[in-house]
Amino acid sequence: MILEMKVPSPGESITEVEIAQWLVTDGDFVEKDQTIAEVDSDKATLELPAEQSGIITLKADEGDSVSVGQVVCLIDTDGKNLNNLSSKISEVKKESTLNEKSTISNSQISNYASGSPSPAAKKILDEKGILPESINGTGRNSRITKDDALRAKPSMGSLPDNKKRDNSRKKLSLLRRKVAERLVSVKNETAMLTTFNEVDMDPIFSIRSKYKEEFKAKHEVGLGFMSFFTKAVVRALSLFPDVNSMIDGDYQINNDFYDISVAVSGPKGLMVPVLRNAEKMSFRGIETEIKRLAIRARDGEITVDEMTGGTFTISNGGVFGSMLSTPILNPPQSAILGMHNIVDRPMAVNGKVLIRPIMYIALSYDHRIIDGRESVGFLVAVKEALENPKNFLMDDNIKKALEF
Question: Domains plus CATH for the chain?
Answer without folding.
Answer: 2-76 (2.40.50.100), 107-158 (4.10.320.10), 190-401 (3.30.559.10)
